[in-house]
Write a structure and sequence with these properties.
Elements lengths: L1 E4 L31 H12 L17 E9 L3 H10 L7 E8 L6 E8 L6 E5 L7 E2 L7 H14 L4 H8 L11 E5 L11 E8 L8 E9 L9 E7 L2 E3 L2 H9 L47 E4 L2 E4 L2 E8 L3 E9 L2 E16 L4 H5 L1 E3 L23 E9 L5 E13 L5 E6 L5 E7 L2 E11 L2 E9 L5 E9 L3 E3 L8 E5 L2 E4 L1 E11 L12 E8 L7 E8 L14 E5 L24 H4 L10 E11 L15 E8 L14 E6 L8 E5 L20 E3 L1
Antiparallel strand pairs: 1-33, 2-3, 2-18, 3-4, 4-5, 4-6, 7-8, 8-9, 9-10, 10-11, 12-13, 13-14, 14-15, 15-16, 16-17, 16-28, 18-19, 19-22, 19-36, 20-21, 21-34, 22-23, 23-24, 24-33, 25-27, 26-27, 28-32, 29-30, 31-32, 34-35
Amino acid sequence: MWLLGLPWALALLVAVASSSPSADTPDPASIFADLSPAELRAVRTFLMGRPELGLSPSQGGPLAKNSLFLVELLPPKKRSALRFLEHGGAQPRREARAVIFFGAQAEPNVTELAVGPLPHPSSYRLLGFKGGRAVPFSARPMTQLEYELLHEALVATMAPLEPLLREATGFGFQNCSERCLTFSDIAPRGLGPGERRTWLVIQRFVEGFFLHPTGLEVLLDHQDPDPRRWAVRRLWYNGRYFGSVRELAESHAQRMLPLARLPEPPARQLFSSYEPRGHFASGTPTEVHGAKVCEPQGRRYRLRGNRLEYGGWSLAFRLRSSAGLQLFDVRFNRERVAYELSVQEAIAFYGGHSPAAMQTKYMDAGWAMGASSYELARGVDCPETATFLDAYHLLDADGPVRFRHALCVFELPTGVPLRRHFDSDFQGGFHFYAGLEGRALVLRTTSTVYNYDYIWDFLLYPNGVLEAKVHATGYIHATFYTPEGQRYGSRVHSHLLGNIHTHLVHYKVDLDVAGSGNSFETMDIRFENISNPWSAGARGWDRDSHTPGLTPPLTHPRYHLAVTRRHENEPSSSSIYTQNDPWEPPVTFESFIRDNETIEDQDLVAWVTVGFLHVPHAEDIPNTATPGNAVGFFLRPFNFFNEDPSVASRAPVIVRPLDPPTCSRLEIQRWTPSSPGACVHPEPFTYNGTYRQV
């Protein structure tokens, strides 16, 4: 049995990367490998050549066109994969998932296709959603082209407000090469199905512009595929609503408008920057390097393509462009414990007084959080000793884009023993001391979804425990300070309100413990008042465990854990379309759990939600710090092994006195070299930071 332990909210696990299968001796894990650049190009070339699809390049042109938005691996069906992995059956057909925006037709829509076989595609078929739900064109994710058109429309419509903006902020939109204004867009984009009306927060474009709102928020209607029909429907400035640009401009011209005047930003040490400022009172040095991770005798893990091995662990991993990390075929000592562990969604719900703040309900799969995996910095984001992996995404582009060092793998000293014991003789000596150093293998990536940075960690421990953890950092989503806004957050700077919000992260855990037929139960502990059997008349407490029923959850943000039967037509609990159509989404998690199916001795999936409430404070400037802003869960063995499997490690230390109780001569047993040797990484810090089409 494997136990789902629950820290703050719960517990479990997951992981991923990007790699193509070897052409010579492909590892079985390659059936789960992300598409290679060659495969991505092959799918695009095939689809662009199909005349019935009528596809145009993604970049440039009108919005009302047919274009290829996303290409990523379509994982094989579980039955086919297990037949191949367990019984030497045929390798599953390798296919791609392709998302197409059909905008150049009478009834625009979004359609998904399965394209294959790879590496030489020759056919495609429709991919449907459970219940046959169609995806309306208005539910499509934003594209670079739509953002460019949105910026052009905003610049044009804001022209009458240029005097106001220049006077209040010193920045503007018109003829701008420096001292420019920019915007952050809010979602959902409306109040009901079919709408595409977005609140835009106008900000000064300086380093950390997320913390520099001007007090102006604009509601722009961009539902029509023709940008010439887009229009500003509403404005909010410094606590007041206006029905049109003209109304706001006239209020300013007539000096009837209280201006929100912003101070001139300093050239150096801007409060939203990372530049050092101030001093620590202790005076201890910070201008020298601190403690580092090292591998004095080399790496203790093996990475082959997308197969990762460490101690008893073996797993396949990938990085989905749509939703991020995904693990398959997770085994310990060759026995599968999980078929799939994957990130499904990251949500942030906000409160506020301004319209943008009260409307914000971010669902980051809709912003392609998997493809927001920018370069990890050696020595900062991952230790210098880490192995770095590139990722390739074809998302809103006319070819695959390389994301350099998007993932890293490293062994981490936990700083606490995995286990230890000092056996005292209670006479000033001891019988023995034994301890096993704490180590874990970490698989890491990040998702920088505009202002926020999520650090995704998946840790493998030598005692058969897996941990999934996510840290939240980056810039807070902040709005302009007004006295009324303090009900919904904190004043974190002179003109800045940090809005209260809740982070929720959803995971899929397809456990296969001793086979795919599993059952689910919860365990609780209670005290029972009983007669003491060895002292007549005395009463004592005895623990009695029982297994109460689990209240069935309704939807993943509401409950910590839901358990359902596994179905091929329920691969994910969310989709890239939910953000822009949360009212009638093509994937509805409630339908997974309202079918009243038995979950005894079945192929089960655990859907896990973790999260935390974030009340921003001044210490979130310039960025939210990771300590205290992390959540996750564990997957732990529970009477699965005969003993702690980490006894197979050769890293323990045992000390026994040879002359007890004097203890002047000691026998020290260890199975590793007596000294780890030098621990220095000589290479200087380097960074690239680009992600370009290849």
